[in-house]
C-alpha cells in the first residue's frame, strides 16, 4: 500500500521546478475566467480548473489526490466531517423503498442520520455484530447497502468484511466500511471486498485535535463523480485550512499509528491482568472474541482503541477517571494524547438508555484512545488511579 509521503501530486510553482513542502492554501471561494473557452473546458471536466468553492478547491483537491493511495483508492473525497461523509454516502446511493443493513455497533451519529433516511422512505435494519448470521437472515432484493465499522466504536468489536462482501454479492448491494478505528495503517477494506471506505479524518488521520474532516475513498472514478454531485449539491466541501492541517497531520501518520497501536496493546494487557478490572475489549487480546477475525483482516497490529470496565459502580469509575493525571478525560479519539471517556453518557446519547444497554455498553464502560506518549508513563498513571 502506498504510504502518504511517497506520491507527490503537486507540480512546481516556479519555472525552475521549486515546490513548496506544503500545498499552498487557496482561500479564494471565487475564480475569474480568462475566457469563455477556458470556462467551458473547466465546466465540461476537460481540464482541471476551479470556478466556485462549493464545487472544488485546489488545496483540498491536492490533498485528496495525495491521500487516495493510502486506502488503495482511485480517488478520495474530502468533506466537512465524518458525519458529513456518512450522510453523503447514504444520500448518494440510497433511494426510497430500498434497504440499508447496518450494525448497532457503530458510531452513534449513524443513528441520527438513519432517522432522516427513514423519513425519506429508506428502510433501515439494525443488526447485531455478535450475530453476523442476521445479515443472511435479513438481506433481500431490496437491500441496496450494508454499512459496518470494524473495529467498532466504542466496544472495538470486529466483523468479517469478506463475509459481508459475500452477502452483498448475493443481491448486488454496496458494502461501505467505516475504517476510522482501524486506520489504513492496519486494515485495507478495499482488498477485503469493500466498495467504499470512509473515515472521520478528525481522528487518527488528522491526529492533533485541530481539524474536523471526513474522507470517502472511492474505488472508481464513477463513485467520485456520484459523491461529487451530492457534495456540490449540499455544500459539504472541506475548507482549505483544515485540508492543510490534514496534510500536515498525515506527514507523521506512519510514525503515530504504530506507536498508538503498541500503547493500546500494552495497556490492554496491563488492564486484563489487573484485579480491579472486570472486562477489557480489544481485538488484539487472544481472549477477545474478535481476535481470530482481526488477525485475518488487520495487519501490523490492532489499532489504538480499546474499552474496559472496572469493578464497582459508576461512581468508582468516575473517581478513577478524575484521578488520572497524565491521561486526559476528553471525547474524541485518534489523537497524539491518550484520552478516556464514557461513551454511554457522551457519544451514545443519541440512543435511548435501553438500547445502549442492549448493545452491551454500560454506564461505566470506559473507552480509551491510546496516544503516542511513552507506554510506561501511561501504565503508571492507570496504576496510580486504580490503586
Ligand atoms: C468511527 C466513527 N465514525 C464517524 C464519526 C463521525 O466523525 P466526525 O465527528 O468527524 O463527524 C466518528 C466520530 O467520533 C467515529 O468515531
pLDDT < 50 runs, ≥5 residues: none
* Broad shape: globular
Bound molecule types:
pyridoxal-5'-phosphate
- At CATH level 3, the topology of the largest domain is Aspartate Aminotransferase, domain 2
Q: Total number of helical segments? A: 15
Number of strands: 12
Under CATH, the homologous superfamily of the largest domain reads: Type I PLP-dependent aspartate aminotransferase-like (Major domain)
Q: Order of strands in the sheet with the most strands?
A: 1-7-6-5-4-2-3
> How much is the radius of gyration in Å?
21 Å
- Overall CATH architecture of the largest domain: 3-Layer(aba) Sandwich
Structure, explained:
The chain is built from 15 helices and 12 strands. The chain has helices spanning 36-43, 58-67, 82-93, 109-119, 133-138, 161-171, 183-186, 189-192, 221-234, 240-250, 253-273, 291-297, 314-323, 353-358, 375-386, and strands at 75-79, 99-103, 123-127, 143-149, 174-178, 196-200, 214-218, 277-281, 305-310, 328-329, 339-341, 366-369. The strands form 2 sheets. The protein has a 7-stranded mixed sheet with strand order 1-7-6-5-4-2-3. Strands 8-9-12-11-10 form a 5-stranded mixed sheet. Helix 4 (109-119) links the parallel strand 2 (99-103) and strand 3 (123-127). Helix 2 (58-67) runs parallel beside helix 10 and helix 3 crosses helix 9. The chain is globular, with a radius of gyration of 21 Å. The model has no long low-confidence stretch (mean pLDDT 94). Bound molecules: pyridoxal-5'-phosphate. Residues 81-83, 107, 109, 149, 153, 178, 180-181, 200, 202, 212, 214 line the site of pyridoxal-5'-phosphate.
Amino acid at each position: 500500500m502506498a504510504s502518504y509521503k511517497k506520491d507527490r501530486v503537486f507540480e512546481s510553482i516556479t519555472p525552475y521546478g521549486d515546490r513548496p513542502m506544503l500545498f499552498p492554501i487557496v482561500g479564494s471561494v471565487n475564480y475569474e475566467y480568462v475566457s469563455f473557452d477556458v470556462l467551458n473546458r473547466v465546466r465540461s471536466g476537460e481540464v482541471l480548473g476551479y470556478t466556485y468553492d462549493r464545487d472544488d478547491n485546489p488545496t483540498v483537491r491536492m490533498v485528496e489526490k495525495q491521500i487516495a493511495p493510502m486506502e488503495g483508492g482511485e480517488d478520495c473525497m474530502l468533506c466537512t466531517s465524518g458525519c458529513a461523509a456518512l450522510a453523503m454516502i447514504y444520500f448518494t446511493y440510497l433511494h426510497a423503498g430500498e434497504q440499508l443493513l447496518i450494525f448497532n455497533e457503530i458510531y452513534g451519529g449513524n443513528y441520527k442520520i438513519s432517522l432522516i433516511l427513514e423519513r425519506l422512505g429508506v428502510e433501515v435494519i439494525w443488526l447485531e455484530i455478535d450475530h453476523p448470521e442476521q445479515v443472511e437472515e435479513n438481506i433481500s432484493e431490496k437491500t441496496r447497502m450494508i454499512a459496518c465499522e470494524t473495529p467498532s466504536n466504542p466496544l472495538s468489536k470486529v466483523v468479517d468484511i469478506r463475509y459481508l462482501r459475500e452477502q452483498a454479492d448475493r443481491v448486488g448491494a454496496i458494502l461501505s466500511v467505516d475504517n476510522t478505528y482501524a486506520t489504513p495503517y492496519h486494515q485495507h477494506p478495499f482488498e477485503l471486498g469493500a466498495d467504499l471506505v470512509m473515515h472521520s479524518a478528525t481522528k487518527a488521520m488528522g491526529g492533533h485535535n485541530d481539524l474536523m474532516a471526513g474522507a470517502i475513498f472511492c474505488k472508481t472514478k464513477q463513485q467520485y463523480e456520484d459523491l461529487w454531485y451530492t457534495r456540490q449539491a449540499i455544500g459539504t466541501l472541506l475548507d482549505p485550512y483544515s485540508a492543510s492541517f490534514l496534510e500536515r497531520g498525515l506527514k507523521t501518520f506512519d510514525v503515530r499509528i504504530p506507536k498508538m497501536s503498541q500503547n493500546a496493546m500494552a495497556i490492554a494487557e496491563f488492564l486484563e491482568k489487573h484485579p480491579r478490572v472486570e472486562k477489557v475489549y480489544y481485538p488484539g487480546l487472544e481472549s477477545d472474541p474478535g481476535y481470530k477475525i482481526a488477525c485475518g483482516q488487520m495487519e501490523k497490529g490492532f489499532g489504538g482503541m480499546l474499552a474496559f470496565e472496572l469493578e464497582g459502580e459508576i461512581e468508582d469509575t468516575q473517581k478513577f477517571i478524575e484521578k488520572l493525571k497524565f491521561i486526559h478525560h476528553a471525547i474524541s479519539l485518534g489523537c497524539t494524547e491518550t484520552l478516556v471517556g464514557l461513551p454511554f453518557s457522551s457519544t451514545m446519547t443519541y440512543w435511548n438508555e435501553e438500547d445502549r444497554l442492549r448493545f452491551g455498553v454500560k454506564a461505566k464502560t470506559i473507552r480509551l484512545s491510546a496516544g503516542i506518549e511513552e507506554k510506561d508513563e501511561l501504565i503508571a498513571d492507570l496504576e496510580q488511579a486504580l490503586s
